[in-house]
Amino acid sequence: MSRLFDLVRRFARATRPVDPESAAMLRERWRALPEQVRTPAQALGQHAMGCEGTHGVFPRCNLACTPCYHSRDANRVRVDGSHTVRQVRAQMRLLRQRRGPHAHAQLIGGEVSLLPPDDHAAALLAMRAEGREPMSMSHGDFDADYLAALALDANGLQRLPRVSFAGHFDMLMFGRRGIERPPDERSLNPYRRRFADMFAALRHDHRIPYFIAHNMTVTPRNLDQIAGVVRDCHDYGFGLFSFQPAAFVGDERRWHEDYRESTADDVWAQIEAGAGARLPFRALQIGDERCNRTTYGFYVGDRYFPILDDEQPADLRTRDVFFRYLGGIDFVGTLPPVLAVKLLRIVIRHPSVAVTFAAWAARMLHRVGVRHLLRHRRIRPVTFVMHSFMDAADVAPAWEAMQRGETSTEPRILATQQRLRACSYAMAHPETGELVPACVQHSVLDPAENVALRRVLPLLPVVSSRTAR
């Protein structure tokens, strides 16, 4: 009988809608946000802690990009799998301690596919061991054999519960096999499709679930090609399209344009033109609007439908109900049967939640149209994101003043400080116990870190980047 009671207690604990530790971490995250971003739309502190990333774990890359956030010494450090795994474990352990049991984290640095597949898999499993949902960041120029060796062990058995990659493709990247210097964005579409098709084949052959995102750096040179990328590639299988307007950060030898000729509004207008729809980004906010714009939605056929419209009060009320009752639930990292019980427990206690979301579903069906839905019979979730990074010339003085406990009176530096305080993307430093914003890592800390790594991991006399994959 005692064993039965123990099982019941464990089941009740596992299916609690919100983990108490997660709830406490979210409250603390909310209190730490600057007042100007603590709005009803703010996801940080109400639903998420924010994203996380690694640093100093494999800084080397075998493509050349203009621009790139890498410091001058990044490619003078060799890739070493044991170093990567050790550092990832330490960084994830600190993130687990400081940010709670669940988060999305990026395995990022240089080119992840330069890691041997076993070390790459070990790093991802180390991230999962600390409650992180990992995503590998890559230029996508690797082969299906590498992907299979990553996802399957030596016996051909699945060793990763899910494979998640972000492939970075744009005409500003030089050295890709088959297209060393892309003349335009459209010329890269076959490579984008090849990347997506590798994951579809992996799922078909081995039943391994996956998620892939598409990243693209934006400068005045390719700004007017964004719409074409979205139109051409929206049905390739990418679940997220992320666009990053270039910033003056990293190796200054690669700064060849005036990146500030275009604005965030210019970039977003191009994304909207490609999606063929207005993309409302004020219904849900992640951090500071000057840094991030996000629209969640889905395609039915070639038409895109945002899930929330920031001009519709009923949608905003649905958002508020979600944050109030469902905000602390980890939807991605929870097994479907457990998630179903969690949601059922919430509905039993708060039946109005079911009514609110039934009304939202009815509105969405009306917007899509029953005939259109029946004609295409498929809903494809796709998220559009824009991340606007800051220039090193602004980040360095802003961060130095923040470290001294000072708030700048210079408007440009003050704005930078505000954005850093609201940053949604953290990187961990186990040696100091500090978490820093990604812009600080790349603008302030990376140069010295990579100089130190040159001594720890000097390049071997002969290195072949292609055979390393």
Report on this model:
- With 469 residues, the chain is of the alpha/beta class.
- The chain has one domain (50-315, 380-456): TIM Barrel (Alpha-Beta Barrel), CATH 3.20.20.
- The protein has 15 helices and 13 strands.
- It has helices at 2-14, 20-32, 81-99, 117-129, 144-151, 189-206, 226-233, 264-275, 313-326, 336-349, 351-368, 370-376, 392-403, 411-421, 438-456, and strands at residues 51-53, 64-65, 103-107, 132-138, 163-168, 173-174, 210-218, 240-245, 292-300, 303-306, 380-387, 425-429, 434-437.
- The strands form 2 sheets. It has an 11-stranded mixed beta sheet with strand order 10-9-11-8-7-5-4-3-1-12-13. Strands 2-6 form a two-stranded antiparallel sheet.
- Helix 4 (117-129) links the parallel strand 3 (103-107) and strand 4 (132-138).
- Helix 7 (226-233) runs parallel beside helix 8 (264-275), helix 9 (313-326) packs across helix 11 (351-368) and helix 13 (392-403) crosses helix 15 (438-456).
- 40% of the residues are buried.
